[in-house]
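Late entry, written up from scratch paper. The run itself happened at the end of the previous shift, but nothing got recorded in the book at the time, so transcribing now.
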Amino acid sequence: MMLALLLVAQIGGTPISGGNPTPGTSQPDPPSVADRITVTGCVQLAKDAPKAAPDGNTVLDSRYVLTPEGPGKLTYKLAAIESQLSPFVGAKVEISGEPKTSGSNVLQVEFVQKLASHCR
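Output as recorded:
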């Protein structure tokens, strides 16, 4: 009898419907593949970068930049959390993301792929 009660207690309950893990809180829009761009360059600390990230989960666009390897190409400010870019400082990378606003040089980083350990 006790075993039957335990099984009923484990099987019972109300299933969760929907995909929002925090009801009442809106979720961000998914990334738009049509707006995504891919750029190649070298990840560097910005000249006026804060000494340390204030919080490992805070997205900053003032700490890292992507410098191009050719003349006349745009330098991007990289909006990302610290752990997403710190392993790639000084490395040649390919970064995919979306400009924060249309025509902006601030890139919201979505993916990072290391191409070489060092930049030229």
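The first helix runs from residue 2 to 11.
(Scratch paper discarded after transcription.)
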